[in-house]
Amino acid sequence: MKNMMIGVDLAKRVFQVHGALMTGEVQFRKKLSRAQFRVFMAKREPSLVIFEACGSASYWAREMEAIGHEVKLIAPQYVRPFVKRQKNDAADAEAIAIAARQPEMRFVAPKSINQQARAALFRGRERLVRQRSEDVNALRSILYEHGHVFPVGLGHLKRMEALVDGETCDLSTMIREECRDLLAQIAEKTERIATRDKKLKELAAQSDKARRLQTMPGVGPLTALAIEAFGPDMTQFKKGREFAAWLGLVPQQHSSGGKERLGRITKAGQADIRRLLIIGAMTRIMGHARRKIPAESWIGKMLVRKPKMLVAIALANKMARQIWAMLTKNEDYRDPVLAAAA
Predict the structure, then answer these.
(1) Are 263 and 254 in contact (CB under 8 A)?
(2) Which of 180, 206, 232 is the last residue of a domain?
(3) Which of 108, 227, 309, 330 could, after both became Cys, cross-link 53 (CB 3.0–4.6 A)?
(4) Range of the domain at 58
């Protein structure tokens, strides 16, 4: 067991380091540059190093493990209660070390290089989609200002393009040029999004974990890659309900005096996975998929009594628990109805 615990407050240039014994006695407090921190830690005996789960934390976790230290990450919200009075780098580093000593503390698993690479690709696609939506909305607003109204959505882009390029168009030359520039940007982003979609599907096809996840209805390549890139090791959760709670797919509690008061979903944890699971759940209860749902099934009974979005969130919660079971047991998806009939 390590005798020394080192809390580190990360920054761009200057790191604050707080060293203490496992019993709490302070051994040193230092302010180090990036280069000095690397040299200082290389000279230390193997210790337990604690970082906040923030930018560059996974990188430094790998660097510290490479020189023999044990590393743990703590979510910032778990460190905040241990900051004494004034907030500064030294107080933050001390609070990190104090928080790590708590026996019930929950830690965050550092991300691997592959996870970070997949996350960067996924986030790059999300950024392009958001930028394309901004461009489409800008185009719609320009046309609206000149008396041409189009509904929301990419499906109406061809109609807007036909209007701008039409011979009978009543728009001025300057406005038409601006609209054409926006259309060119939208086309470029659409092509780049398609390239990333292709790359993400290729990565999903290469991963056995992603392939297994896609056997579940409502889970496609994007959702599978998001779970692989952003999701922690499922074995750290004792049961599927804990994973669903980590995603924020459970009601927020305001209970007191033995009386339960449940509110909206907490929206804690990883937002990308939660959003994609809710979208996937919605595809299972909308359109043609809804007509295939037996009226006596759990989803069928819920749809009669509850709004569609509430049912989708409840179904996403169930999907999260099923995903936990699939990944911890290394099994493909099994339809509960068919499994019960077997």
Answers:
(1) yes
(2) 206
(3) 108
(4) 4-100
